[in-house]
Structure formats: C-alpha cells, structure tokens
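Hi R.,

Quick one: here's the IS2 transposase TnpB sequence you asked about.
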Amino acid sequence: MNELQSTFAVSQRRACRAVDQPRQTQRYQAKVRDDEPALVEDILKLVGEYPRYGYRLICGKLRQLGWTINPKRVYRIWKQEGLKVPVKKRKKRRLGNKNNSAQRHAAEHINHVWSWDFIFDRTASGKQLKWLVIIDEFTRENLCLEIGYGFKSEDVIDCLVALSAERGRPGAIRNPSLSPTDHW
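And here's the predicted structure, written out as tokens:
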C-alpha cells in the first residue's frame, strides 16, 4: 500500500478505496501475548514427555497444568513449531519356528537345495494339465518336468527318488507353498 501511495501521490484513504480494501487492514498491529514463549516452552516439554499425543491431548495436558487455552491456539503453535505425531511402526509377527521361516538361505553348491512346485494350464478342450517342475536352486537347472492330468504324492516321491539315484541326494528340498523339508 505504501508503494501505491508513493507512486501515485495519493492518500492512504484513496489508495485503499482504489484497491477496495478496508483501512483497518493497513493500521492493524498484531497483539503479541506476553505468555507466548512460556506456552511454547510448555508445549515442547509436554511433546517430549508424551510423543504420541497430538495437539488436542497436549491442550488437555496444558489445561491440567493451569493454562486457560483454546485448542486453535495450540494448533497454531503446533504448526509454527513444525510438530508432528510420529507414525507408529507395527511389528511384524513371526509365525512358526526357524525351520518354517520365510527367510530363505541361498544354495551354496550343486545339489544343496532343490525346489519343486506345480504349474497349472488348460488344454484347448478345457482339461486341466498339471506340470511338476523340480529345479536345482544353485545352477537353476531344470531337473524334472513331468506333465499329467493329476499327480499323487507317490508320483512326486517316485520322481524325487529317481533324481536322487541319478544325481545324489540334495541337502534340502523346498516347496514355496509348503514348509521346507530339510535334511531329506
């Protein structure tokens, strides 16, 4: 407003009328409260003591300390100080024992760990096909690929026995959908 007055050599009243602004906005002086530094200090002290409290609970604690305070004032100071309630980190619960853990140890040599799983597909006529896949995790070599309409547990065991006779026994056998079969 001062720049407008000096540029056009007009009074404050005319400059305010030109920009359609009340004169009180030019003359207003913000009232600085005497208790503001003490209030900020108490808020920061309470935030250090109760880090999970937001501005509303801090306002309640201030009232317990004897402050007559509005939550909007606490919110304004809260924002000025850049305070935030930290996000609570949830702990992941571990299920089962160490053998069933989701942590997978990498294979260290050939025949250390074999992994097997089923893959499903459909023929053009709509019949479901099941593929048994067994791989060596160290070399990523496909050891067995059997295709059929259905597999029984005996079929999987027969395939594993034939592979172990041909290549030697693995240190462990894994299936992603089942618990690991260690020391097979």
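The chain has a mean pLDDT of 86.

Cheers,
M.
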